[in-house]
């Protein structure tokens, strides 16, 4: 069986670029990813009754709240929030189709949001790598001052 390198090249390249920028600036980053239990959503994401009642899957606003709450809790310079549908199963709404991801980066200047479809369909592994690449790309854009609020 052939072995595959991890991280894959696109992920390794963007991770190195982000790492270099963070070191250069002397800043820190934390990651807040999907929370699956009610208890963790309340404890770690600061969810309210309204969030719980109205939940319809991942959205940019939802992950922005996750990133903002985690940044306040941990004191990191930046927090990347991510939630998506990696597949192979999913649903029929836009944010439940495999390949969909909602991203946010919380910083002192505000919270930057992005949502996209990786285009990898039901391929869970490719979607997971794609989500990471896109999250780090958004963080890089924030670090370089290229992201728009």
Describe the structure.
With 149 residues, the protein is of the alpha+beta class. It contains five helices and four strands. It has helices spanning 9-25, 38-45, 49-54, 60-74, 124-144, and strands at 29-33, 78-84, 100-107, 110-117. It has a four-stranded mixed sheet, sandwiched between helices. The longest helix is centred in the last third of the chain and has 21 residues, at 124-144. The protein is globular, with a radius of gyration of 15 Å. This is CinA C-terminal domain-containing protein. It comes from Venturia inaequalis. InterPro entries: CinA-like_C (IPR036653), CinA_C (IPR008136).
Short description:
The chain is of the alpha+beta class and about 150 residues long. The chain is built from five helices and four strands, in the order αβαααβββα.
CATH topology assignment: Maf protein
Helix amount, in percent?
Answer: 40-55%
Using the CA coordinates, give the radius of gyration. 15 Å
Shape: globular
Structural class of the secondary elements? Answer: alpha+beta
- Strand arrangement across the biggest beta sheet: 1-2-3-4
Give the class-level CATH name: Alpha Beta
Unreliable stretches covering 5 or more consecutive residues: none
Largest sheet: 4 strands, mixed
Q: Oligomeric state of the chains?
A: single chain
Strand content: 15-25%
InterPro entries: CinA-like_C, CinA_C
Protein name: CinA C-terminal domain-containing protein
